[in-house]
């Protein structure tokens, strides 16, 4: 199994921090490896303490299902194919801000989860982090 390296995880964190600064937010940013274990984490000064857990759960959710957490959210609405999935795996987050991380060959090697602002901003920052990994 391919796995994210510490260097790649740190690159994702740096890119996410840069995007967070660019859009004027304070974020909690978590990167998990291919096994959904925490690999890197940062809480920006002033970021919400409650978002620590959310960022980590977004990252794990994105890795568990290899899709953006916002996409899972669309499937987990009442009547949806994955309704109530957020209650599985010790608690999932099914709104935007979690993104799988792929290597240069397209293999998923981990995921990033971001929390601390609107879900749109969370997703933008997470995508910037994921895009920084090759």
Task: Write a concise synopsis of the structure shown.
With 134 residues, the chain is of the alpha+beta class. It is built from 4 helices and 4 strands. The two termini are 16 Å apart.
Walk me through this protein's architecture.
- There is one protein chain.
- The chain is 40% helix and 19% strand.
- The longest helix has 18 residues, at 6-23.
- The chain has a single domain, classed as Haem-degrading domain (Beta-Lactamase).
- The relative contact order is 0.25.
- It has a 4-stranded antiparallel sheet.
- It is an alpha+beta fold.
The largest beta-sheet arranges its strands as 2-1-4-3
Total number of strands: 4
**Overall number of domains:** 1
For the biggest sheet, the summary is: 4 strands, antiparallel
